[in-house]
Specification:
Blueprint lengths: L5 H13 L6 H13 L3 E4 L6 H11 L4 E5 L6 H5 E6 L4 E6 L6 E5 L6 H5 L2 H6 L1 E4 L2 E4 L5 E6 L12 H4 L4 E3 L6 H10 L15 H10 L7 H16 L3 E3 L3 H17 L7 H12 L4 E2 L7 H14 L13
Parallel strand pairs: 1-8, 1-9, 2-5, 5-8
Antiparallel strand pairs: 3-4, 6-7, 10-11
Helix pairs in contact: 1-2, 2-11, 10-11, 11-12
Length: 321
């Protein structure tokens, strides 16, 4: 596969998703960036905005196995990973795989599970493997965790710690539809569920191959410097206690590469970094107590950082896809 083949492939996926999801073009692009980068997604918004529907739609249009786990306070790590069972008839232990052994895992309302269960996902998300009773089992590629959570309701929830938030490649907020989109949603879902008529448009093998080659996209030295400058700006900002880590800068670079390919280029430009930076960076920062839980305050700080950081102005050229 060539880089030139990735853009039309992702456009096919996007067209299928658009048959179910109304509007949200930028959100879909961000989700496709995570899919191509083979990294995990946290969908955060109030109930009823389409978080679960978006995850199910993505899994439907790619030829991959899909499992869903409804996270609750009584969910145990073994309910996610699996358990070893002793069979008396042959006096042998046998491992029964849990729902995490899939390609696309929807972790619905992840913040309702206890920290013990939440942390059991860490090895799987980072190392793409599961260790049970000393035995290690590899997870088949592609492996993508799409977790959802409600940011408003606090009762009966366990907020994700910073270490686990950092495992999520991007954090997306869907938001409410505008008036025209709201009307289109009512019309589209008036009689039937569009998701039921969708089919897969790309194979698992093609997706895995695309995930393996997209990093061949060219990156100029000025882009590396721009990402480092953004990180440094977060680390010295007066309203940020903990700035962007080196792992965060690597995630930003990978996201910019994926976005460049999806947009039809074989090279990264500063706008790729600037466009994807908020969803990659914001959830990795720890803000001062004065900022509180105000999403608007955090967004304003991110905008100020992007405005303040000098953008490379030299020509960055490459082969157009």
């Amino acid at each position: 596969m060539e880089l030139t083949e990735i853009k039309p492939m992702m456009e096919q996926v996007k067209r299928q998703i658009n048959q179910v999801i109304v509007g949200k073009e930028q959100v879909i692009d961000q989700l496709l960036v995570a899919l191509l980068a083979s990294r995990h997604v946290l969908l955060e918004d109030v109930p009823g905005t389409g978080k679960t529907l978006l995850a199910k739609t993505l899994a439907t249009v790619i030829d991959c196995q899909f499992n869903r786990i409804q996270f609750t306070p009584d969910l145990l790590p073994s309910d996610v990973m699996g358990v070893t069972i002793f069979h008396q008839h042959n006096s042998q232990f046998e491992f029964q795989k849990g729902p995490i052994f899939t390609h696309i895992l929807l972790a619905d309302e992840i913040n309702r599970a206890t920290p013990r269960t939440q942390s059991s996902l860490l090895e799987s998300m980072e190392e793409r493997q599961v260790t049970i009773d000393g035995d290690t089992y590899r997870l088949e590629a592609p492996f993508l965790v799409i977790a959802t959570q409600n940011p408003i309701e606090n009762q009966g929830t366990f907020p994700l710690p910073e270490a686990q938030l950092d495992r999520f490649f991007i954090k997306i907020k869907l938001g409410y539809p505008d008036k025209e989109e709201g009307k289109e949603i009512l019309q589209r879902f008036r009689k039937e569920q569009p998701l039921e008529t969708l089919g897969s448009v790309i194979s698992r093998e093609a997706l895995v191959e695309a995930q393996q080659i997209f990093t061949n996209v060219e990156v100029d030295q000025s882009i590396f410097q721009y990402i480092v400058d953004l990180a440094e700006e977060t680390r010295r900002h007066e309203d940020i206690v903990i700035g962007l880590s080196p792992r965060g800068t690597q995630a930003l670079l990978r996201a910019a590469q994926a976005l460049a390919v999806i947009k039809g280029r074989t090279y990264v430009i500063p706008d790729d970094v600037k466009m994807i930076a908020p969803v990659v960076i914001l959830h990795r920062l720890v803000f001062s107590p004065m900022i509180g839980r105000s999403a608007d305050g955090e967004t304003t700080i991110m905008e100020n950082i992007l405005t303040k950081t000098e953008v490379p102005t030299e020509d960055i050229k490459g082969d157009q896809v």
